[in-house]
Write a structure and sequence with these properties.
By secondary structure, the protein is α/β, with parallel strands linked by helices. Helix content is 22%, strand content 22%.
Length: 552
């Protein structure tokens, strides 16, 4: 079912309320809340007039949409070459605030325009940082660390550079993030308009309307008790969901990493905080089958499981990016699903940018061969599961680190929905900040305590702006070794790929080195480059290959 069809099933008054909230947030960000800019194709032959209170262009599909969506007038834009007898570029004006991003899609689908876009807002150039007006944002050191903390000393910049990241991307309502956890406080104002709804299910009729095996699953599912109410009973899930997606810039509470994604709440922990792998496997499958593009799992156990791995593989086949934790036992013993393949496993750092050992309650961030990267995870202030106005509670653990990564993954998909889980993982790992922690643990390149480094949202989204082409999955007949290396990387590949172009790209997304490989056994010398992480891309006939490479 399309997003448009889903919206039409909302009660009319609720629809107006939701659109008002969305459009107000958009207006305070980077484009007008009641305007679109369009350029007609020359074949459309538009002739503008106002008929019965609506903008008309003598183009049937456009005129019908104008009337349906409340486009009351238009203005021919005075841009180069547009002011002839039949202008093609117009600003469409709507009678009230609208869901601008939804309208962009709707008008584009008519096929009558060369382009459709919001009327964007700009600012004077310089170093800008988006600071949300949420009154408790100052407590969120993980997003912006100014070196001041009420509970401890802190290091300026020991954060994920979120304020600069929001200058680039704040999220998209089309991206669904599943949160497999202890549930959430579903009526919290910080989740208003953000909880995923299953519009194929009629609420409260006791019927499995969409025949997916779950009766009345109109807002997620409780896999712990096999009911349709995924309410939180411990606080853990509400904290985690809030880190990912609490409404930002809404003048109350806190700000989530992603301000617009939909949160699919799937309860996989019981009232005591325990959950069976079978619950988690079913929840992953449910998320993948119902449109989730990111799954956060701040959960874990110490036993490997074929059932769990198969569920991970299924979600991965549906192009779902999955994030989980390494665990809190201060050990290298693997934790699952974090140690499953096709998972981004996240450890935790403190406000000194070091691996947390111990957390405020004890324990320590697990480490090991399966860790991908780390993110802030100690004393993370969050939403309360018992109050809509209490913003003093906090949690600590790798459970709090993982949702930071999940939120950035959602932003990367908002930036480019075509990205695959492998591409998201590569971007997050490649742009992570290396050598920020304890030098006895945080070694150059990948290490078992910090993985590829501490999450940097701004660097990850900046990488997206300079992306030359999508990162590719590893080809079976291409080998680059050793990794890490001190200088030279040897390349072996099938003769059918020769000649091949190569590019070595740094964490800022810039090409640091490039050239041409003319035989199936060659080498690339990285000796002249600064130590750190790079991506090596190979392109040629039947070849689109990328590998993260560490230079020590």
């Amino acid at each position: 079912m399309s997003k448009h069809t889903q919206i039409l099933k909302l009660p009319f008054l609720m629809l107006l309320w939701c659109l008002s909230i969305v459009s107000y947030a958009q207006q305070t960000e980077n484009f007008a809340a009641n305007r679109l800019v369009v350029k007609f194709r020359t074949s459309a032959k538009p002739v503008y007039s106002v008929k019965r209170g609506y903008a008309a262009f003598s183009v049937a599909s456009v005129d019908k949409l104008n009337k349906k969506r409340g486009c009351t007038s238009a203005r021919a834009l005075k841009v180069g070459g547009n002011m002839g007898k039949r202008p093609l570029v117009y600003v469409l004006n709507f009678s009230s605030p609208v869901d601008v991003l939804s309208l962009v899609k709707a008008y584009t689908q008519t096929g009558k325009f060369e382009y459709v876009e919001p009327d964007y807002v700009g600012t004077a150039h310089g170093t800008t940082e988006t600071t949300p007006n949420d009154p408790h944002f100052s407590k969120q050191w993980s997003l912006y660390n100014n070196g001041i903390a009420s509970f401890d000393s802190a290091i300026i910049g020991a954060d994920i550079s979120m304020k600069k990241a929001w200058d680039i991307e704040k999220g998209d309502t089309s991206i669904i993030v599943a949160v497999i956890d202890g549930g959430a406080k579903m009526d919290h104002p910080e989740f208003a308009g953000r909880i995923w709804r299953n519009y194929d299910e009629i609420q409260g009729n006791g019927i499995d309307d969409d025949a997916n095996g779950y009766v009345d699953d109109f807002q997620g599912w409780n896999f712990a008790y096999d009911i349709n109410n995924p309410a939180d009973e411990t606080g853990h899930g509400t904290n985690v969901a809030g880190i990912i997606g609490a409404n930002g810039n809404n003048s109350i509470g806190l700000a989530g990493v992603d301000w617009y994604c939909k949160l699919m709440i799937l309860k996989g922990l019981d009232t005591a905080g325990f959950g069976y792998y079978t619950w988690w496997a079913e929840a992953m499958t449910y998320a993948a089958d119902n449109g989730a593009k990111v799954i956060n799992m701040s959960i874990g156990g110490t036993s490997s499981s074929t059932t769990l791995q198969n569920a991970v593989n299924y979600a991965n086949s549906k192009k779902v990016t999955m994030i989980s934790t390494t665990g809190n036992g201060n050990t290298s013993a693997p934790n699952y699903p974090g140690a499953c393949t096709n998972i981004i496993a996240v450890g935790a750092t403190n406000n000194h940018d070091c691996r947390v050992n111990p957390f405020s309650w004890g324990g320590g961030s697990n480490y090991g061969t399966y860790i991908s990267l780390v993110a802030p995870g100690n004393r993370i202030t969050g939403l309360s599961y018992t109050s809509n106005t209490n913003y003093t509670s906090y949690w600590g653990g790798t459970s709090q680190a993982a949702p930071h990564v999940a939120g950035v993954a959602a932003l990367l998909l908002a930036q480019n929905p075509a990205r695959t889980p492998a591409q998201i993982k590569t971007i997050l790992e490649t742009t992570a900040e290396d050598l920020v922690g304890n030098p006895l643990e945080d070694l150059p390149g990948w290490d078992m305590y910090h993985g590829h480094g501490r999450l940097n949202a701004y660097a990850a989204l900046s990488w997206g702006l300079s992306e030359v082409s999508p990162l590719a999955a590893v080809a079976t007949d291409v080998k680059l070794f050793p990794n890490p290396t001190t200088a030279k990387v040897f390349v072996k590949m099938g003769k059918q790929h020769i000649p091949a172009n190569y590019a070595v790209i740094n964490v800022a997304g810039a090409v640091a080195l490039n050239g041409v490989l003319r035989s199936s056994n060659e080498e690339i010398d990285l000796g002249g480059l600064p130590k750190g992480s790079y991506v090596i891309r190979l392109n040629g006939d039947n070849l689109n290959f990328a590998q993260m490479q560490v230079l020590r």
